[in-house]
Specification:
With 154 residues, the protein is of the alpha+beta class. Helix content is 14%, strand content 35%. It is built from 2 helices and 10 strands.
């Protein structure tokens, strides 16, 4: 199969060559880059000391108590170290928490619900950063999607 009979729509599209029939157009969402991770900790001070010693990260206070930003985890990537929380009651966040950068949060919400996921935290605006949701995928995994303010990563 080739793509010579496929018309691209938007910035990303996929199609297939249907030489004997009508042209198929399939519009796909923009790829969502990983933009933020958070490490949830029972003892934030202990975790801070650990990650600074192991990876040499610069971890500084930001926002509410027991919330820190990881300043140098990678280009275009933000990190956080925070007290363990439960976005969904009875389901504490263990391990790393990921958030994806999206261009259109409302379209992403619709895509999540259409694909069988559910929104577990409604849109929350972080001044100067953007608007964030958390969702649960079809396998019970929690992740975030953030529409960043224009120019945030410039």
């Amino acid at each position: 199969m080739g793509v010579e009979n496929c018309r691209l729509r938007g910035r990303v599209a996929a199609g297939m060559d249907l030489r004997s029939g009508p042209r198929l157009e399939l519009e796909l969402p923009m790829p969502a880059p990983l933009r933020h991770f958070a490490i949830n900790a029972a003892d934030v001070d202990r975790a801070k000391a650990f990650y600074e010693a192991v990876f040499g990260w610069r971890i500084e206070p930001w926002g509410p108590p027991d919330f820190y930003q990881v300043k140098d985890a990678g280009q275009g990537l933000l990190g956080a170290l925070q007290a363990r929380r439960e976005i969904v009651a009875g389901k504490p966040m263990f391990g790393f928490e990921a958030s994806f950068g999206v261009e259109d949060l409302q379209a992403t919400i619709q895509a999540i619900m259409t694909a069988g996921g559910r929104i577990v935290m409604q849109p929350y605006r972080i001044d100067g950063v953007g608007e964030l949701i958390f969702f649960e995928d079809t396998e019970g995994n929690l992740a975030g999607a953030m529409q960043y303010v224009p120019g945030f990563f410039d």
